[in-house]
Structures are given as C-alpha cells and as structure tokens.
Amino acid sequence: QVQLVESGGGLVQPGGSLRLSCAASGFTFSSATMKWYRQAPGKERELVATITSAGRITNYANSVKGRFTISRDNFQNTGYLQMNSPNPEETAVYYCVVSPGYWGQGTQVTVSS
Fold first, then answer.
1. DSSP state, 30?
2. Three-class SS of residue 26?
3. So what's the pLDDT on residue 52?
4. Closest Cα to residue 50, out of 105, 3, 95?
5. Going by DSSP bridges, is the β-strand pair 107-111/10-12 parallel, antiparallel, or unpaired?
6. How far out from the chain centre does Cα 45 lie?
7. What pLDDT, in 10s, does the model give residues 13-65?
8. How far apart are CA 55 and CA 47, in angstroms?
9. Cβ contacts of 2 within 8 Å, gap of 6 or more
10. What pLDDT shows up at residue 82?
11. CB of 21 closer than 8 Å to CB of 80
12. Phi-psi bin for 30: left (phi > 0), alpha (psi -120 to 50), beta?
C-alpha cells in the first residue's frame, strides 16, 4: 500500500537549519508531484512548496522563498525540504503529500531558542 514516512523534524533554533525527509513506497514515486504542507496550532493548513515529478519545476509560498528548498531523489524514492533560517512562527507539523492525494503522518518542527 501507499506509504509516506516523514522524518527529520525536531527542535531548531531561529536562524538554524533542518532537513525534512519523506520516504515513499507502494507507488511510482517518480511519476508523482510532491508537496510539503504545514499546519500550526490554531491555524489553517498552508502549502509550503511543490516539486514536479522529475524535479524540474518548483514553487514556494512567498513566506519561504529564498530560505526553504524542496528537492527529490527519484532513485531513492525520497523527497526533501531543506529549511534554512526558520522563525518561531514556522513551528508546525509538516506533511509530505504526493499526487493524487496521499498524505504522510507529519513531522513536528519546533523553532525556538
């Protein structure tokens, strides 16, 4: 069956770095668009970044442009979100999502000093 397992979350200081991973199995990962969403307590879910199946096109929320990088390794069936210089307002559960609508369980990211 389809499985998406996020990892790499945890506590990071403001201005630090963190890399999230999303390990995929049970489907053809290389054919799927991948997205990262996040949801902070009491807030609506937000689309953070998107990458096309071959990785040629990426898009970002304005709030993370220049700081976050989405990427993928189709040979390893894994997607990534590199988070540089996060701020405390970006504390949230981060979710990996692949087309046509499969979600991972999420990984908690806490940005705090």
1. G
2. coil
3. 98
4. 95
5. parallel
6. 13
7. 999 999 999 999 999 999 999 999 999 999 999 999 999 999 999 999 999 99
8. 17
9. 24, 25, 26, 27, 102
10. 98
11. yes
12. alpha
What would the two tokens of residue 28 be? 């053809």
Q: In the structure encoding, which two tokens stand for residue 105, read together? A: 């369980």
8-state DSSP, 74: T
**Kind of pairing between the strands at 17-25 and 10-12:** unpaired
CA distance 73 to 55: 9
CB contact burial 30-59 (16+ within 10 A = b; e otherwise)? eebebbbbbeeeeeeeeebbbbebeeeeee
One-letter amino acid for residue 22 of the chain: C
Rounded distance between C-alpha atoms, residue 100 and residue 23, angstroms = 17
List the structure tokens of 71.
């990427």
Q: Which residue, chain included where needed, has tokens 């902070």?
A: 40
Closest CA to 39 of 48, 30, 31: 48
| Nearest to 48, CA basis, from 58, 35, 34 | 35
